Amino acid sequence: MDSFADRLKSLGFKPASKIEPPMNAETESLESHIKGILIENSAGSFVMKEEIYSNQYQHGEITFSGAIDTEAIHQAGKLRVSSPNSFENMIFIDTETTGLSGGAGTFAFLVGVGSFNPLEGFKLQQFILRDPTEEKAMLLHLTNLVRDDSIFVSFNGKSFDIPLLQNRLIVNRIPGNFRERDHLDILHLSRKIWGRQLPSCTLKDLETNILHLARTSEDVPGWMIPDIYFRYLHDHDPAPIADVIYHNAQDIVSLAALFIHITHLLEADLNQMEISTDDLIAISSIYWNLRTFETACQILQSCEKRDLNRSQLATVHAMLGKYFKQQRLFSEAADHWQIAAANGDFSSYIDLAKYFEHEVRDIKSAIHWTNLGQSLISNNQSLKNARLEKELQKRVNRLQAKEGNHVSKEN
Q1: Quick check: 96 and 290 in contact, CB under 8 A?
Q2: Axis-axis angle for helices 186-194, 238-267 (nearest 10)
Q3: Which of 109, 212, 335, 391 reaches 20 to 30 Å from 276, CA-CA?
Q4: Does residue 63 sit in helix, strand or coil?
C-alpha cells in the first residue's frame, strides 16, 4: 500500500526543500523567520521552535513554578501513576491540524509540547511541518519524547488531539500507543470547577475569566488555521504561519497556567478568603466524587462562615444534608435541607418528604413538603418536567393513601 507521502507526491506535492521560490519574490525560510532549527532523523526532517518560560514567569495572574504538589490533582483526574516526580513527567500537548472535524485525512502540521523542569522552568517545543511529507519524521521524534511514565496534559485532548495523533502513528506505521498513557484533560476538571459560574468553559473563556489574560493581535482564530496552512503550502510565506505558532504557544502556556491554578485550588488552605465561594463549592464536589467525604464536608462548612447568596446557600446546605444523611445523622441533615429548600433547592423538598415519612413517621409533614415541591415546579419554568411532576403526584397519592389507612386504624 502506498504511504501517505507517496500519495501526496502523486498529487503534485513536493518537499519544501525541492520547491523553487516564486519568481521575483524575496522568500525567507520558515525556520529562519520563526528563529527555529531543523531537526533531522532517519525518517526525514522538520522545523522545531523552542522557548523557555522561566520560573516566576507570569501568565495572566498565574505565576509559574518549578515545583508543584500534584497529589490532589492526580486524585481529581483519576490518574494511575502517582509519584513525587510526576510533575516532571507531565507532557502538556496541543495540536494544530488541517481540519477541525478530525476526519481520516486530517493530520497535525504543528504539535506543541511543554514540560516543567525544576531548574529551567517551562520548556515549550513546537514541531512544524514545512510540507506534509515531513509528518513521519515529526511523529518519530514525538514518540521518542514520550516515555512509559509520561502523563499527557491537554485541553480536550482525550477527544481530539491524542486520537488524531494515534491514528497518524498507525498511518505512518510507527510503533507506539498514546491512548495507553495516563491523561489529565484540563477541560473536564475546568467544567467541574467553573461550569456553574461561567456560560462556557472554552479555553478563551477561562483565559479571560480565570487567568485574566488577553491575547495580543498576533493571535489568529482557530477556525482560520487550516486555511492558513494550506495557503503556506502554496506560497511559502512564513509570516501567517508564525501567527499560528504564537496561537499554539499561547494555548499550551495557558494550559500549564490552568494546571498550576487548579493544583493550588485543590491544595489550598480552606480559610483563604481570596478563594471564591463558588470555587470552594466546586472543589468540595470534586472531593465528594473522589469519596473523600470528610474533606468535602470541611470545605462546605468553611463556606457556611461566608456571606452566601441564595444560590450558594441552596447548594452548600443541600450538599451538607447529603453528607449528614450518609452519616445517618438525619436530624442534622434535615436542618440543612430546610435551609436549602428555603433558598430554592428542589431536591431538598424531596429529601425532607422522605425524612418525615421514613424517619419521623410524620405523614402530614411528608405530604406538606411534597406539595411544596410541586408548587416550586409549577412556578419555575426551568424546573418543569412532565416525568417529575407525575412522580411527585404519585408520591402525594401514596402518602395520602397511607395517611388514610393510618386514620382508619386509629378509629
Answers
A1: no
A2: 50
A3: 335
A4: strand
Q: How far apart are CA 124 and CA 171, in angstroms?
A: 27
Cell, residue 18: 525541492
Tens-digit pLDDT profile for residues 115-172 = 998 888 999 999 999 999 999 999 999 999 999 889 999 999 999 999 999 999 999 9
Cell numbers found for residue 38:
531543523
Beta-bridge partners for 59: 62
Reading the block at residue 15, the C-alpha cell is 518537499
Q: Is the dihedral of CA 37, 40, 45, 49 positive or negative?
A: negative
Q: Identify whether the C-beta of residue 300 lies closer than 8 Å to the C-beta of residue 281.
A: yes
Residue indicated by cell numbers 465561594: 277
- Which residues, at least 6 apart from 380, have a Cβ–Cβ distance to it below 8 Å? 344
Cell numbers linked to 82: 502517582
* Chain mean position to CA 388: 31
φ/ψ of 63, rounded to 5, equals: -100, 130
- Look at the block and give the residue holding cell 489529565: 184
CA dihedral 405, 406, 407, 410 (to 10 degrees): 120
Write the pLDDT tens digit of every residue in 312-340.
999 999 999 999 999 999 999 999 999 99
User: Count of residues for the chain?
Assistant: 411
Angstrom distance (rounded) from CA 387 to CA 273? 42
Single-letter code of the amino acid located at 115: S
Q: What's the CA angle centered on 167, arms 166 and 173, to 5 degrees? A: 90
